[in-house]
Design brief:
The chain has 448 residues and is of the alpha/beta class. The chain has four domains: 124 residues, Rossmann fold; 165 residues, P-loop containing nucleotide triphosphate hydrolases (Rossmann fold, 3-Layer(aba) Sandwich), CATH 3.40.50.300; 70 residues, Helicase, Ruva Protein, domain 3 (Orthogonal Bundle), CATH 1.10.8.60; 57 residues, Homeodomain-like (Arc Repressor Mutant, subunit A), CATH 1.10.10. Strand 4, helix 4 and strand 5 form a beta-alpha-beta unit. Helix 6 crosses helix 7.
C-alpha cells in the first residue's frame, strides 16, 4: 500500500534531502524533492502528494508560509515540520494552525517513517471532508443566523396555503426560495408555474395569466389556457410583482379574493386552486404610499413575508458559497478542480456585493476561466467592487479595527515599505499585500 504513496520533502540543505529521500524510498514511498518553498509549490500544482515533510526555517519562504500556500492548493494535505530547537515555538504554532506534527533536528529517520505511516493510516480511515452542497433547488443556505432564521420561517409556512411575498435585492435568490416553498409543500407533485411580470408587456400579461378564447382579439386564433389555470393544484410564482399595471393589479386582486378567473373574451368564470407566491426587489410599501400599487393587493399578497438578506449582511456564508460555485462549475464543465486561495476568500468577504449571490457566482466563473495554475487569485475575478469601509464599526475594540490599526502603525514605522511592515508584524509579504487591500490602505501616504 505504501508503494503508491507520494511524499514531498522540502529543505534548503541538499544533504538532508538526500538522507530523507534514501530513508523514505527504502520504506517504499515515492519521493519528490524540493530545495525551496516556491519549488515545492510548483510540484504541488502538477503532482498529487499524500504527505508534505518540510523544514521550518528556509531563506526564500518559511515553512509556515509554505504550509499556508500548500493547503490552499491541496486542502487537507498532512504536513510534518522538521525544526531546529530554536524554532520549536514556530512549529507548535503551525501545528495549532492545522499542521499534523513536527520533529526536532537531528531527527530519527525511523521515527519519521513511523509518523508518516500513522498519518496515512488515519487519512485512509477518515471520511473525505464534506464539501458545500445545494439542496434540490440548487440553493445554498449557509450558516449565518439570518439565513437560518429564514430557513426556519420557510419550513413553518411551507405546509400552509398562505400567500407569500418574498422580498430582497436583485440577485439574492428569490426564485430559489419560491421553488423551495413549492417543493417542501403538499403541492409538490402539482404544477409550479413561473410568471415573469417584469419582462412581460402589460398588453400580453393579461392573456398569459388569465388565458383567452378564440376570436377574443385579432390574433386569438384558438383557445388558450392561462398560467393561473395551469397552476391549478400547485403554485403560481409571480416574479417582479411590483411591475404590473394598475389594471392587472385589479384583476389579480379579484382572483385572490374569489379564487376565480375569467378568460379574455369569456363570459363564464372558472375556479382555480393554486397557492400564490410573489417576489419583488421594489419597495412595495413606498409604492403603496405614492399610489402606484394597490394597498388591498399588497396585503393580500403579504399574508407571510420572507425577507432575504443581501450578501453583505451574511458575509460568513461567502466561503461556503464560493467553494460550492467553483466545485460545481468545474464539475459541470469537466475542468480540473480550481483552488480558491485563502487570501482570495478573505478579500471576497470584504466586498459590498451590490449584485449579491448572482454577482459572486458570475465573478467566480470568470476567475476559473482566467486563473493560472488552477489557483484563483483576487485579480482573476475582475471585480470593480470596493471593500466596505470599517467606519461602520462603532466599537473601537473589534478584531478588524485592532488589526487595521496595527497594520497602520507598522506602515507608519516603515514609511510604507510593506516588506518591512510584514516583518514587524510577523506575517508574510503576501499577507501584508492582502491586508493593505482589505483595509483600503494606500502605502504612499505613509512615505513621508
Amino acid at each position: 500500500m505504501s508503494e503508491t504513496k507520494r511524499i514531498l520533502i522540502v529543505d534548503d540543505d541538499q544533504n538532508i534531502l538526500e538522507v530523507l529521500e534514501a530513508r523514505l524510498q527504502a520504506a517504499g514511498y515515492r519521493v519528490y524533492r524540493a530545495a525551496s518553498g516556491p519549488a515545492a509549490l510548483d510540484l504541488l500544482k502538477s503532482k498529487p502528494v499524500d504527505v508534505l515533510v518540510s523544514d521550518m526555517k528556509m531563506p526564500e519562504m518559511s515553512g509556515m508560509e509554505l504550509f499556508v500556500e500548500a493547503v490552499a492548493i491541496q486542502p487537507q494535505l498532512p504536513v510534518i515540520f522538521l525544526t531546529a530547537y530554536g524554532t520549536i515555538p514556530d512549529a507548535v504554532t503551525a501545528v495549532k494552525a492545522g499542521a499534523v506534527d513536527y520533529l526536532t533536528k537531528p531527527f530519527d529517520g525511523k521515527e519519521l517513517v513511523k509518523k508518516i505511516a500513522g498519518i496515512l493510516a488515519t487519512v485512509e480511515k477518515s471520511p473525505a471532508p464534506a464539501r458545500p452542497h445545494a439542496d434540490d433547488s440548487g440553493f445554498i443556505w449557509g450558516t449565518s443566523p439570518a439565513m437560518q432564521d429564514l430557513k426556519a420561517m420557510l419550513m413553518k409556512v411551507a405546509g400552509s396555503n398562505a400567500n407569500v411575498l418574498i422580498l430582497g435585492e436583485s440577485g439574492v435568490g428569490k426564485e430559489y426560495i419560491a421553488k423551495l416553498l413549492h417543493h417542501t409543500s403538499a403541492r409538490r407533485n402539482h404544477p409550479y408555474i413561473v410568471v415573469d411580470c417584469g419582462s412581460t408587456p402589460a398588453g400580453i400579461l393579461e392573456s398569459e395569466l388569465f388565458g383567452h378564447i378564440k376570436g377574443s382579439f385579432t390574433h386569438a386564433i384558438q383557445d388558450k389556457k392561462g398560467l393561473i389555470e395551469a397552476a391549478n393544484g400547485g403554485t403560481l410564482f409571480l416574479d417582479e410583482i411590483g411591475n404590473i399595471s394598475a389594471e392587472m393589479q385589479s384583476r389579480l386582486l379579484r382572483f385572490l379574493e374569489e379564487r376565480k378567473i375569467r378568460q379574455v373574451g369569456a363570459i363564464k368564470e372558472k375556479s382555480v386552486d393554486c397557492r400564490v407566491v410573489a417576489a419583488t426587489n421594489a419597495d412595495l410599501k413606498k409604492a403603496v404610499e405614492d399610489g402606484s400599487f394597490r394597498q388591498d393587493l399588497y396585503y393580500r399578497l403579504k399574508v407571510v413575508t420572507l425577507q432575504i438578506p443581501p450578501l453583505r449582511e451574511r458575509r460568513a456564508d461567502i466561503p461556503e458559497l464560493a467553494h460550492y460555485f467553483v466545485d460545481d462549475y468545474c464539475r459541470r464543465n469537466n475542468m480540473p478542480t480550481c483552488v480558491l486561495l485563502q487570501e482570495t476568500l478573505q478579500w471576497l468577504e470584504t466586498l459590498t456585493w451590490p449584485g449579491n449571490v448572482r454577482e459572486l457566482k458570475n465573478a467566480l466563473q470568470t476567475g476559473i476561466i482566467l486563473c493560472q495554475g488552477n489557483r484563483i487569485e483576487p485579480e482573476d475575478l475582475q471585480l470593480d467592487d470596493e471593500p466596505d469601509s470599517f467606519d461602520q464599526f462603532d466599537d473601537d475594540f473589534t478584531m478588524e479595527q485592532s488589526e487595521k490599526e496595527a497594520i497602520i502603525r507598522a506602515l507608519k514605522q516603515t514609511k510604507g515599505v510593506k516588506k518591512d511592515a510584514a516583518e514587524l508584524l510577523g506575517i508574510s509579504r503576501r499577507a501584508i499585500q492582502y491586508k493593505s487591500k482589505k483595509y483600503n490602505l494606500d502605502t504612499a501616504q505613509f512615505k513621508d
